[in-house]
Write a structure and sequence with these properties.
- This protein is an alpha+beta fold.
- 16% of the residues lie in helices and 38% in strands.
- The chain is built from 6 helices and 19 strands.
- The strands form 3 sheets. Strands 1, 8, 9, 11, 12, 16 and 19 form a 7-stranded antiparallel sheet that branches.
- It is elongated and about 60 Å long.
Length: 292
């Protein structure tokens, strides 16, 4: 497969910046990035709500749905939560992203806020784009994308969820647990890892399922090949009335009795620009192992 690369062109390229400007470290980082783009004549857009914080006359304001189709790439400044929320727009319009960490962990970020000047590299040379698989989550006629993970579980304290999982229509397992996490390789270092799941290289294309606090002496993760269709339902015999379906940290569905959700690898990808040149294991060591 031919490697994708990107370069921003002076006076021709357009970029969109998603920034969680309510966070203290984000505003100065955003200002520096805007000045860098202004110096290099890169057309710059932010969401209309950013007018409250940004006074630059160079910046244009637009809803992402209206302008992303015309932009070359997306910059996201904040923590992993900001990246997960904003990246869904980039996926929808098939735009590459670069995350700038102004939060705590920043596992999905490529550069740190103090290294913002590195963004000028995009104007001087072509930088590689890494395509990562994401998940498609369906509940009836509703569909959403998961970049990190999908959690299906209880929404009432003290209750245990009765869950059953099928793969291509065949039963895989039944759990009494707080819930289960279905994750991408990118999401393998998030909730799934905290629940005891394996860490997968982000170059792999696979689906990870990990039970959360299972009521069992033997209960482990299962890794599925990407062409499988995973369905999750509940017998609701534990007394719960409904279950939450949380995608990338946000509740998106409520699973009622006799309902199932379906999870599969999407035909869309998230595209990360690798500006820093760091690989998966270097990031893993710096962000996860090195923090112990």
């Amino acid at each position: 497969m031919k490697e994708e690369k990107i370069k921003l062109r002076k006076g021709k390229s357009k970029v969109f910046i998603f920034a969680n400007l309510a966070r203290p470290n984000v505003f100065p980082c955003t200002e520096k990035l805007i000045k860098l783009f202004e110096k290099n004549k890169i057309e710059t857009y932010l969401v209309p709500q950013a007018k409250e914080f940004i006074s630059s006359e160079y910046v244009k304001f637009s809803a992402p749905e209206e302008i992303l189709c015309e932009t070359d790439m997306v910059f996201i400044i904040g923590g992993d939560g900001t990246i997960l929320r904003a990246a869904k727009y980039a996926v929808k319009f098939d735009k590459p992203i670069i995350g700038i960490n102004a939060g705590r962990l920043g596992f999905l970020s490529d550069i740190e806020s103090e290294s913002i000047s590195m963004a000028e590299k995009l104007i001087k040379e072509y930088c590689p784009i890494e395509k990562r698989n994401i998940l498609e989550v369906e509940n009836g006629e509703k569909t959403t994308f998961a970049i990190n993970d999908v959690f299906v579980g209880k929404n009432q304290p003290g209750k245990t969820a009765e869950l059953f999982v099928e793969c291509n229509g065949h039963e895989v397992c039944r759990y009494r647990a707080d819930g289960i996490v279905i994750a991408t390789p990118d999401g393998s270092t998030a909730y799934s890892m905290s629940a005891g799941g394996p860490v997968l290289d982000t170059n792999l294309n696979a689906i990870i399922m990990t039970p959360v606090c299972p009521h069992s002496l033997i209960s482990c993760s299962v890794v599925f090949s990407p062409e499988k269709l995973i369905t999750v339902g509940s017998s609701f015999s534990g007394g719960e009335k409904a279950l939450d379906v949380v995608v990338d940290g946000e509740k998106v569905f409520t699973l009622e009795k006799d309902q199932k959700i379906a999870v599969k690898s999407s035909d869309k990808f998230i595209k990360f620009v690798n500006l820093s040149g760091r690989g998966f294991y270097e990031i893993l060591n710096q962000k996860i192992i090195g923090r112990r």
